[in-house]
Amino acid sequence: MPDEKLPLALSVGDPSGVGPEIAIAAWQARDSAGLPPFYLLADPALIDARARRLGASVAMVETTPAKAPEVFVHALPIVPLAARSIDSPGQPDPANAAGIIEAIDRAVADCLGGRAAAVVTCPIAKKPLYDAGFRFPGHTEYLAHLASLHTGADAMPVMLLAGPELRTVPVTIHIALSEVPKALTSDLIVATARITATDLEHRFGIARPRLAIAGLNPHAGEGGAMGAEDEHIIRPAIERLRAEGIDAFGPLPADTMFHARARAGYDVAICMYHDQALIPAKALAFDEAVNVTLGLPFIRTSPDHGTAFDIAGKGLARPDSLIAALKLARRLADSETKAAAA
Ligand SMILES: NC(=O)c1ccc[n+]([C@@H]2O[C@H](COP(=O)([O-])OP(=O)(O)OC[C@H]3O[C@@H](n4cnc5c(N)ncnc54)[C@H](O)[C@@H]3O)[C@@H](O)[C@H]2O)c1
Ligand SMILES: N[C@H](C(=O)O)[C@H](O)COP(=O)(O)O
What we know:
Blueprint: E1 8-11, H1 19-28, H2 30-33, E2 38-42, H3 44-53, E3 60-62, H4 68-72, E4 76-80, H5 97-112, E5 119-121, H6 126-131, H7 139-151, E6 158-162, E7 167-170, H8 180-183, H9 186-202, E8 210-214, H10 229-243, E9 247-252, H11 260-263, E10 268-271, H12 274-285, E11 290-294, E12 300-303, H13 320-341
Helix pairs in contact: 5-7, 9-10
Bound molecules: nicotinamide-adenine-dinucleotide and ligand 2.
């Protein structure tokens, strides 16, 4: 149960991406954006170098999670990593992997250790981490692994993209499109939808959330003429969910479920693969949508965008989605605190 006074732990992400500069920009916007206190887990030399590169005048103080809230008022609180980072914007380097992973590990340890209210992550690029031996598809799966290590219980992570007008969940995440039909099972859809329904109710305060379940194939299979998965895998999953009392319906043709009138009929769209969920979420609200991991014993949010290597170090990166992620993390942490106190 997070304490209302605890700061948020922000991991720096890939130092060659835009993470360092959006963290600096978010801190600079703390008053105008009404941001809650956070501290940045990073190599202080990297943050100093990025601020200088961008000509940003920013006070920074190396500190601890406990002292971060008082520091936050006048300086960007940095909790230093043991690993050093190379400042090479736009040029990802597997040598930075140790610091990227240490920042995530420490944010989770701080959160589960009662030193931080929630974990917020700046973007990581997957390929340089894979090249350095990292064996998880992304944060989502790695955070579930860390949760299991800390608690001893298995955690099934669910990716939610939350924007002002649309929430979406991909059932399958970082796998090749050609693998999706093989990976899609009724059990996976049911498990994903259950966690989504539970967390939307308990963490987001949506009583009996309405889950619109997308089909996989064009026109949700057109009665089996355009693929069998919609009738043989997705529909039985929906029937099981309804039998459990979850307000799930579909399978809906994915091309007509994201326009404004259709969106008014549900609280979350459960989608069958990554782009089916993330394209509408990012098309509608690239600067505002937040990536939230459901199903974990702690709160984790992240901006919806990636490392943006093409603009890193150029002063073009917008901090808006990170600001939305910090605010949402605070809101979710506070509602958990209130629920536990009630
Ligand atoms: N949460 C995460 O860790 C996360 C999320 C998405 C992608 N990624 C990773 O990021 C890497 C790059 O992915 P991508 O190129 O597909 O997506 P991207 O989001 O990094 O970039 C897509 C486009 O959006 C622009 N953009 C992104 N963030 C911006 C910002 N804050 N302000 C202004 N413009 C911005 C970029 O310049 C680029 O033109 C990949 O390795 C991917 O795996 C990580
Ligand atoms: N698919 C996510 C997106 O595009 O926003 C992203 O790669 C982040 O995944 P993790 O949070 O698992 O790193």
